[in-house]
Amino acid sequence: xxxxxxxxxxxxxxxxxxxxxxxxxxxxxxxxxxxxxxxxxxxxxxxxxxxxxxxxxxxxxxxxxxxxxxxxxxxxxxxxxxxxxxxxxxxxxxxxxxxxxxxxxxxxxxxxxxxxxxxxxxxxxxxxxxxxxxxxxxxxxxxxxxxxxxxxxxxxxxxxxxxxxxxxxxxxxxxxxxxxxxxxxxxxxxxxxxxxxxxxxxxxxxxxxxxxxxxxxxxxxxxxxxxxxxxxxxxxxxxxxxxxxxxxxxxxxxxxxxxxxxxxxxxxxxxxxxxxxxxxxxxxxxxxxxxxxxxxxxxxxxxxxxxxxxxxxxxxxxxxxxxxxxxxxxxxxxxxxxxxxxxxxxxxxxxxxxxxxxxxxxxxxxxxxxxxxxxxxxxxxxxxxxxxxxxxxxxxxxxxxxxxxxxxxxxxxxxxxxxxxxxxxxxxxxxxxxxxxx
Length: 438
Ligand SMILES: Cc1ncc(COP(=O)(O)O)c(C=O)c1O
Known about the structure:
- The structure is a single chain.
- By secondary structure, this protein is of the alpha/beta class.
- The protein has two domains: about 20-55 and about 340-435, Aspartate Aminotransferase, domain 1 (Alpha-Beta Complex), CATH 3.90.1150.10; about 65-335, Aspartate Aminotransferase, domain 2 (3-Layer(aba) Sandwich), CATH 3.40.640.10.
- Helix content is about 40%, strand content about 15%.
- The strands form three sheets. Strands 4-10-9-8-7-5-6 form a seven-stranded mixed β-sheet, sandwiched between helices.
- Strand 2 (about 35-40) and strand 3 form a beta hairpin.
- Helix 3 (about 60-75) runs antiparallel to helix 13 (about 320-335) and helix 15 (about 385-400) packs across helix 16 (about 420-435).
- The two termini are about 40 Å apart.
- The site of pyridoxal-5'-phosphate has 14 residues, from helix 5.
């Protein structure tokens, strides 16, 4: 290594990134405040994605910065195995309090991926403790994203991820996804068509036998694969089929948790309580990494009924890290003080209206909105899926907005502090980029 070049771009292997493409023309973010990033070349970038679906309260919030700094000075780290620190209990109580029903117990991890693996393990172990160790199968859904652990990749439904790493866990099956351009294009909120797709779970029960199925995991609204909103009645039906067959229902709320859909959780918005919920991202406003699995009372109690000793052989060095807990507590205070979940809900009609105005632009084949989320689907270029979406992303970046694309779908999910005029600005930049991208 040439030590005279400390800032060479070569050493950093970037995640989920076209490294060579990026390094040929880097896009570096060097500062962030409120609704804006600043770039290495001195430009302001309107944040249309809340970072990566995570900075829900906006960037650089003084209260969170102060809480992290104070915690770092007071106690940098505390081991979480057979020891603890007070803020972990406080944050767990606050998170449990925000979640519906008897989702009362919180296991901390450091990312969405870890939260998902935690949830899957809890589901498997729960059945084993009840004498149903034969329940080993995990059911995911096509076009689901559950992070990159071997568990999450396997139940996930993204072909390149699964092809590369998803084959090691064999007790896996998938529901069909709920997206249909024919039936549901240009829907605002929950589409009318598609409740019957939940019945595919009945088919999997018939195929494998309920006694072999441990859990079903779905994102209540799939974000990463392009904003797939659950059809009316779909989540309710999944819930009732899981109830009939004793299957643990897991909602992966890594994106939908903490206000994205205008409520503390999608479970609350859609009025369907899962048995386990995964959280991350917005739990700390992304200022310190953190994830969590929140479980219902009956699951937790099952673990607590065994002989004295460690109840769950699982945990991370940084579970409930003091800096993350401090950031989390300050974040939850901000959400409450600024009433951000209700704010997102009240912005939803304006947001939807602004997004759906783009429907006449060239190559736009669908627009889907709910909460403060929009998916704008473009027709792929012949023989080059994803190329048009990527060009739009770059064009938006160059003209002052951060957007996210998955393939040819543009996904927008701004911080919940966005103002109407910034919604207009964001959609104007996106619209212009679509219009000028062949
Ligand atoms: C629904 C969902 N689950 C899990 C994850 C993985 O989270 P992380 O990247 O923090 O591991 C993501 C990330 O976007 C996600 O959207």
